[in-house]
Amino acid sequence: MIGKKIQQLRKNKNYSLTELSERAGVAKSYLSSIERGIQRNPSIQFLEKVGLVLGITVEEFLQSDKQKEGAEPADMEWSELVKEAMNSGISKREFRDFLEYSKWKLERR
């Protein structure tokens, strides 16, 4: 999903793969593998670099089209918490593990 979004935005700006990779300072091969869906979990830093060139935020990359259409936006405190977690370098897997542990801990009470 993210790869297709990057590819569409790149094409809308008439950037070649090489041009976007150079402007964003990312490896062309990695960018290509993201666009083709070979790599499916780009880092936040990668999304920030590419997003800066394409004019899109990390949050917009991660937000699905369905979320854009009908869901209420997350309150500012949640958004800031997610940004803080992303900037700290925590992986999605680590964050999910933490949530699962927290749920387990609450159930045991």
TrEMBL record:
One of its GO terms (cellular component) is cytosol. Gene3D superfamilies: lambda repressor-like DNA-binding domains. It comes from the Bacteria. GO terms for molecular function: DNA binding; DNA-binding transcription factor activity; protein dimerization activity. Keywords: DNA-binding. SUPFAM superfamilies: lambda repressor-like DNA-binding domains (SSF47413), SinR repressor dimerisation domain-like (SSF47406). This is DNA-binding anti-repressor SinI. It comes from Paenibacillus sophorae.
